[in-house]
Amino acid sequence: MKTKSIWGNPPTRLYKLLNLAKNDWGKNFTACIVGCSDGKFLMPLAREKIKITGYDIDDIALYGGYKDFPIVKEKQKHEYSVNFKSKDFELERKRVLGITERLSIEKLEQFATIEKRDFYRTNSTEKFNVVFTSCSLHYSANKDFTLEEKTKKLQEIVLPKGYLYIDYMMAIDENDYENYPSNKFYRKDEIKKYFNTDEWEILSYRENNNPSFEGAHVDCVRDHFHRFGYILARRIK
Ligand SMILES: C[S@@+](CC[C@H](N)C(=O)[O-])C[C@H]1O[C@@H](n2cnc3c(N)ncnc32)[C@H](O)[C@@H]1O
Fold first, then answer.
1. What are phi and psi of 50, to 5 degrees?
2. Quick one: which of 92, 34, 99 has its CA closest to 60?
3. What is the distance, to the nearest Å, from the Cα of residue 9 to the centroid of all Cα atoms in its chain?
4. Which residue's CA is minimally distant from atom 1 of ligand 1?
5. For the structural domain made of 12-235, what CATH number should be given?
6. Residue-wise pLDDT tens digits, 77-106
7. Ligand 1 centre from 34 Cα, in Å?
C-alpha cells in the first residue's frame, strides 16, 4: 500500500537530482536527507531501492502520532504586505504516520536507515554521494549555529563528486535582523560565499526576490509568507 506525506508530493527538483545521480552511478549510490520528516523526499528514493539515510529530531515525524491541522474551509491567496495578519483557524487533531511506519507499511525498511539525530549538534562520520535538505536550517533548534557553520556541516558529509542540494528560507526584509535573524534566514547571494569554488561547482541556483504566499498548514497553522532559495552543487574534490 502506498502511503502519503503530510507535506504533499516532492517537487520535480528532487527527481532531477535523482536522475543526475542515476546517470553517474545507476542505483548504486548512497543518499542522506537531513530533516527527513515523515519522508516526503525520502520515500521516493526508498521506493527506487536506493540506500537512503534520514535524520530528524521530530518524534512524531519519525515514529507517528497526533498533529494539529488547521481547518481551511475555503482556500484564499493573499498578497504580501508587511502588516499582513492571518485569521485564526480552528484546529483538528489527526493521527499521522511517521517515516518508520510508512517504511514498514510499504515494506521498504531494508533500504532506509532512520536515525533520531540533531544533525548540527552531533558529529557524523558517514559520508554520502547525495545529501539533501529542504527548509530545515532555519529551525529554532539550529539557532545557535551560523548559516555558514550549518552549510559547511552539510558539505562535510558529501563524498567526492557527490551532490549537495539545499533549499532554504531567506529574509523577506534583508535589513530586519529581529524578525529574520542572521542565523536562520539567508540574505541575497549569501549561501554562494560558503561554497569554495576550488571544491564545489554550482550546478543550479535560484533565489526569489519576492515573498510567496503559503496557506496555513500543519506545524504553521496561520497563513504566512516565505522567501525561498535553493542551490545544487557538486563536490569537485
Ligand atoms: C520543513 S521540514 C521538512 C518538511 C518537508 N519535507 C518539506 O520540506 O516540505 C524540516 C525538517 O527538518 C527537521 N530538522 C530541523 N533541524 C534539524 C536538525 N538539527 N537535525 C535533524 N533534523 C532537523 C525538522 O524536525 C523537520 O522535520
1. -95, 140
2. 99
3. 13
4. 135
5. 3.40.50.150
6. 988 888 888 888 999 999 999 999 999 999
7. 7
